[in-house]
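Hi again,

Forgot to attach this to my earlier email, sorry! This is the prediction with adenosine-5'-triphosphate bound. I've pasted everything inline since the attachment limit keeps bouncing my files.
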Amino acid sequence: MSRGSTSGGVATADALRLEAVTRIYESSRTPVIALNEVSLALAPGTFTAIMGPSGSGKSTLLHCASGLDQPTRGKVYIGGAELPYGRESKVTKFRRGRIGFIFQQYNLMPTLTVRQNVLLPARLSGKAVDQERYTTVLERIGLADRLDHQPSELSGGEQQRVAIARALVTAPEIVFADEPTGALDTATAREILTLLDEAVYAFGQTVVMVTHDPVAAAQADLVLFLADGRIVGEMPTPTAAAVAERMTRLGDDVVERETMAEA
Ligand SMILES: Nc1ncnc2c1ncn2[C@@H]1O[C@H](COP(=O)(O)OP(=O)(O)OP(=O)(O)O)[C@@H](O)[C@H]1O
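Structure tokens for the complex follow:
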């Protein structure tokens, strides 16, 4: 199992690096600083959870890091390559080749079969599918006998399995997951988390997951805590109890700051 930043003693590029990333929403009358000079570096083959109170900037961080949104300032690197901005087609091409994304609501194409959904990113990027990886991913995810079904014929947990297979099959440099277990019952959520963990140790996949659930966060190697658009703490080798306790303190801090600002 490799979860370090070196391979065979040779230093490898960070799977994800953010340099002073700031995102300000100017749409409303009062600009909102959703991310404030966030810098971080994550090694390949690691599983990181991002937690924080509601409105702390978790989704904004995930969207900026994955090229779904453009930071107001700062830089994002995936596998050492800077995310290109400017023409939308350039970012889209970059994303298709290097980034997988798992959404809370699965976001499968309803008219396509499981097989077509899983192969869609490869088809769109023009990347040849590695048949061995395709077969291994489907075996691990446990969908081999459902390939000709449509998403509406599957349970929520099964649809999320399809979404995970879709994210993994092109062997992206990083997979982002936004509340991947948020719509699932506890037992199914555990199965999905186990699959994500397996992707890390079986495929050496780098995974970054936003979650509200301390048990889900405890599956990761590292938890980053966000508050008011900044990283305010980190916890290596987390436990659910320790994460829950830290989150309670973060929530209290935010309430205290808001009360002082209003006074
Ligand atoms: N399009 C937007 N326009 C203006 N403000 C926005 C926009 N999107 C997000 N925000 C604000 O940016 C801040 C961070 O939002 P974000 O959705 O990243 O937080 P979050 O931690 O993911 O929250 P939650 O846990 O509730 O999903 C919040 O104050 C939010 O209101």
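Confidence is low (pLDDT under 50) at residues 1-10. The chain has one domain: 6-104+164-262.

That should be everything now.

G.
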